[in-house]
Amino acid sequence: METESGSAPSTIFGPQLRRLTVAMLVLITLSAFEALAVTTAMPTISSDLHGLRLYALAFAAPLATGVLAMVVIGNWSDRRGPRLPLLVTVVLFTVGVLISGLAGSMTVFVLGRVVQGVGTAMVVPMYVVVARVYPEGLHPKIFAAFAAAWVVPSLVGPLAAGLVTEHLGWRWVFLGVAALVLPAVALLIPGLRDARLAVGSPEVAWVPQRIVAGVVVGAAVLILHTVTGDAVDWPPMIMVAAALAAVLAVVIAIRQLAPERTLRFGRGLPAVVGYRGLIGAAWIASEVYLPLMLKQRFGLSPSAAGLVLTAGAVAWSLASWVQGRIGSRRSDVLVVRLGTALIGVGAGMALLTGALGLPPLVAIVSWGLAGSGMGLMYPRLSVLLLRFSTPSQQGFNSSAGQIAEFTGMALSLAGTAALFALLINSGVIAYLAPFAFALIIVAAGVLISGRVLPSSTVAEPPESVAEPVG
């Protein structure tokens, strides 16, 4: 892929791509920081705004609107190119954090979170930008950089948010992010002047059924997080029925939001999209409950228990860098299978640590192996997704990958929450169940990992590979 000067970029930080690369990495980092920091600040926010009853909704609302936004933004990017969709989502993200930071009531704060959820769909047009502007040989490096951009916030985000909340006030957790978006946009705009980013495929029509399906998935995710987060006081049977109905709605609606045969992990693109949901489910099932087990079972302080997350984040970052250096020198299937197996090692050692009373350091170090698995695998799946996407389907397929990951994590959290609640009076078993749940998912992933490549790998995928249902 050549620039207007006739020479193809050789590095993601070269003169042709430097501003665009830095701008996108800064935006991903800010989005990640905000997502992590709000968890730290939320107890203070709900107290100051007298909105404890809306506590769970403040987390669930942006997740729900994010799904719908990914659907619309993906369709828009295919029709008109990624330039305008990316700018609009960045603006909406900024508006959302400003509304939340200036909120005088919990209702207004939640409204800001709703707008933020729409803005987080910025990652969809970013994928299309990569497909249009970055040579294919640089795709492993830029996706490795995207993965690494989440790591710094995971290391310092909660601590920084706590210090800001304590010394400056919780509002600056949001207002500070909004202020830092401005220099990123200043770098982004020149990079978006590339004519290829304004070229779409007008023959790609708006698909109303996908938008309706996005609404259904978003509403179902909202219901799942509500009934599993103690936000309502319904009878148990009604809560179970609501959760099952929400899961069924997701399964039905997702068929409109992903390539055909995704739920069956059809070879090639469908399996790549489905695998994003699978590994997201396995990862979140363990990561959420590891600090809880270390604190409750072994009596570690919150900061000491948090070391397990740091280990995973650092290993993820290092493995992403290694993956970017490896490029295509290792088989796609080998990398995906190895990454999945390493997540299994992390979950399995966490289970053994809790069951056998092993030193907590065993679980912490082992979760570093799980993080390295994600760092190796995640960028490779992103590369495969674009490789198997025709230009007219880059936006749709990018949004499908994000939606699959998001819904996989949401379903996994609902499942582990139900297991934990069911076994809460069974002692240590309740803390081990999520890891067993993750291991089942990992085992399935290892078995089907070979399906991420078509039966006969070709340079250009046939148009039918990327066709959505309906």
SSE arrangement:
Layout: H1 18-48, H2 55-80, H3 83-102, H4 106-119, H5 123-133, H6 139-148, H7 151-167, H8 171-191, H9 208-227, H10 236-253, H11 269-287, H12 290-298, H13 302-305, H14 307-326, H15 332-356, H16 360-387, H17 394-422, H18 429-448
Helix pairs in contact: 1-7, 1-8, 2-3, 2-4, 2-9, 2-17, 3-4, 3-8, 5-17, 6-14, 6-16, 7-14, 9-10, 9-17, 11-15, 11-16, 11-17, 11-18, 14-16, 15-16, 15-18, 17-18
In short:
The protein is an all-alpha fold. The chain has helices at 18-48, 55-80, 83-102, 106-119, 123-133, 139-148, 151-167, 171-191, 208-227, 236-253, 269-287, 290-298, 302-305, 307-326, 332-356, 360-387, 394-422, 429-448. It has three domains: 1-206, MFS general substrate transporter like domains (Growth Hormone, Chain: A, Up-down Bundle), CATH 1.20.1250; 207-257; 259-470, Up-down Bundle (Growth Hormone, Chain: A).
Structure report:
- Its main location: membrane.
- The chain crosses the membrane at residues 20-42, 54-74, 86-104, 110-130, 142-164, 170-190, 211-228, 234-254, 275-294, 300-322, 334-358, 364-386, 406-424, 430-448.
- It is found in: Cell membrane.
- GO terms for molecular function: transmembrane transporter activity.
- Residues 20-457 form the Major facilitator superfamily (MFS) profile domain.
- By secondary structure, this protein is mainly α.
- The protein has three domains: 1-206, Growth Hormone, Chain: A, CATH 1.20.1250; 207-257; 259-470, Up-down Bundle (Growth Hormone, Chain: A).
- The chain has helices spanning 18-48, 55-80, 83-102, 106-119, 123-133, 139-148, 151-167, 171-191, 208-227, 236-253, 269-287, 290-298, 302-305, 307-326, 332-356, 360-387, 394-422, 429-448.
- Helix 3 (83-102) runs antiparallel to helix 8, helix 6 (139-148) runs antiparallel to helix 14 and helix 14 (307-326) packs parallel to helix 16.
- It is globular.
- The model is unreliable at 1-5 and 458-470 (pLDDT under 50).
